[in-house]
Design goal:
The protein has about 300 residues and is of the alpha/beta class. It is built from nine helices and 13 strands. It has a seven-stranded mixed beta sheet, sandwiched between helices. A four-stranded antiparallel beta sheet has the order 1-2-3-4. The protein has a two-stranded antiparallel ribbon with strand order 12-13. It is globular. Bound molecules: S-adenosylmethionine (SAM).
Amino acid sequence: MSIEASPRANRSHSTRNGYEIRLCRDSLSQDSEWFDVRLGSRWQRLRLHDYDKIYAVPGLYEAVYNRLLRCTSPERVVSLLREAMADGHEPTGNLRVLDLGAGNGLVSEELRCLPVAKVLGVDILPEARQAALRDRGWCFDDYIVANLLDLPEETEALLRNARFNGLTCVAALDFGDIPKTAFLKALDLIEAPGWLAFNVKETFLQEELDDGFARLLGQLTRTGVIKLQAYRRYQHRVSCAGQPLHYIAVVATKERVIPHGMLAPRLDPLHRNGRLCLDPALGGPPERASQESRPAKSVTSK
Ligand SMILES: C[S@@+](CC[C@H](N)C(=O)[O-])C[C@H]1O[C@@H](n2cnc3c(N)ncnc32)[C@H](O)[C@@H]1O
């Protein structure tokens, strides 16, 4: 969309790459925030969640999220993983990590610096893979474009053969991004013993606002599948209006395989119509417009 720069998107920021960005200063929900960017002589309006379009412009994701909105999550989550492993006298150098919702590779870059033995990125967007290989190809042993809820057999075999013992998922578990069932599938692809590190907006772990993720974590903990090792509340980034947004970073160990019933939709009361329903008595989490209730997107593998 070509537009005139909006008066509400005040304060213009020039970037190293030579384009200009104006953030919307209204207080909007995180999935509605937007900015205007001048690329050459044209202004374009993008939502912060228009990842495909943002990744297509080299450096734009970093300029908006890291520099203007001061996002710290890749570094914060990976450093909590490093600290928890150091406390347990576990070397990170043995980790073979599946980075779920890998985007353009900022988390994988942090992992490489730990260091770890292996990193495979997975994202649902081909544009994420293109950007990651364009900007941080050295961070990846492989990067596949896939929907974990609809994996072709050969992709699943490839992922299982990689024998992951680490899972990261940063800034991707809310606002219609990665559904709980896909997170559970990723956890199933990790061997036990293994490590997981992820973050989630703090309100998503509050009982009254829980859309099922907190209950999933509770269930995984109670059944002994995971053991909580560390968590930290921190400022993930600021909103476009400049307000702090707090997230919780979580590090846990995978202790045992996920019971079959939790993974099998329809056969188990945890799932209803393919959606997680962790407390059948309550009728499950409220409806949200997320990918869980949408048909699987068509994606290409690798
Ligand atoms: C905010 S970005 C975070 C990227 C990276 N983890 C980071 O912290 O820089 C969220 C990413 O999750 C990806 N994503 C959303 N839904 C997904 C799904 N169902 N499966 C895999 N990736 C998904 C998006 O395409 C996007 O690249």
